[in-house]
Design a protein that fits this description.
The chain has 224 residues and is mainly α. It has one domain. It has nine helices and no strands. Helix 1 packs antiparallel against helix 3 and helix 5 packs across helix 9. It is globular, with a radius of gyration of 18 Å. It starts with a helix and ends with a helix. 33% of the residues are buried.
Length: 224
């Protein structure tokens, strides 16, 4: 029982940490390519997850979600978390708003790339013919990266989609939209927890179950 619990925990946590680490590192690589060396100078251009861990977003919240789901529904149906943001000095860019939009897009782009690579690998192993543990890891990695990439594209600061929108809007409107960042986490929590549990409206769950999961299954080769 304990061994199975630990195994399920590892199969859920490891892909999440790896996906979040590469997401954040992609921001730093993009910033470096555009002329900002801040992330490199602070040692954040690394695949060492310990350098990107946020105590609440990477450990406490995912851990609570993991344990509560395994103890109640005996499976991991949903995971959410974040890493310590990679530092970017926007003032070093010729056009800070536009360049920050590009840096922001690099994170979700990395997640979609990882999902695609995992899908190719799973199809290469023969999907249903692959060992169960390998199917689980690769499919979870596909799903996690798709969810992480799409979720971060929500146009809510400080999510990546919010930063992209700030880079595209006219300056005055962009300033107003960027001001939402102080409330961004509260808005995200409301969408994820308050709407489904209080008002029985679950836009994230609907998109996940009706769109993201079917696409992930198709990518993995389970439904051609």
């Amino acid at each position: 029982m304990i061994t199975n619990f630990v195994l399920q925990a590892l199969l859920a946590i490891v892909p999440v940490i790896f996906a979040i680490t590469l997401h954040e590192t992609a921001h730093g690589w993009a910033a470096l390519a555009l002329g900002d060396t801040t992330a490199r100078d602070q040692g954040r251009l690394t695949l060492n997850p310990l350098r990107h861990i946020d105590r609440v977003g990477t450990i406490i919240l995912p851990g609570l979600l993991l344990i509560s789901q395994l103890l109640t529904i005996h499976r991991v149906a949903f995971m959410f978390g974040w890493a310590k943001p990679v530092p970017v000095s926007a003032w070093k860019f010729p056009n800070p708003r536009r360049y920050m939009a590009v840096v922001a897009l690099a994170g979700p782009a990395m997640n979609f790339f990882l999902a695609s690579v995992s899908a190719v690998a799973l199809r290469g192993f023969g999907a249903a013919d692959a060992p169960l543990w390998l199917q689980t890891i690769l499919f979870d990695f596909i799903l996690i990266n798709m969810v992480l990439g799409l979720f971060n594209l929500l146009p809510i600061p400080p999510l990546d989609g919010g930063r992209v929108l700030v880079g595209l809007l006219p300056e005055q409107l962009a300033r107003s939209w960027a001001g939402l960042e102080r409330y961004g986490l509260l808005i995200v929590i409301a969408v994820i927890l308050v709407l489904p549990n209080v008002f029985h409206i679950d836009p994230i769950g609907d998109v996940l179950n009706k769109t993201v999961v079917p696409i992930a299954l198709w990518l993995a080769g389970y439904h051609d």
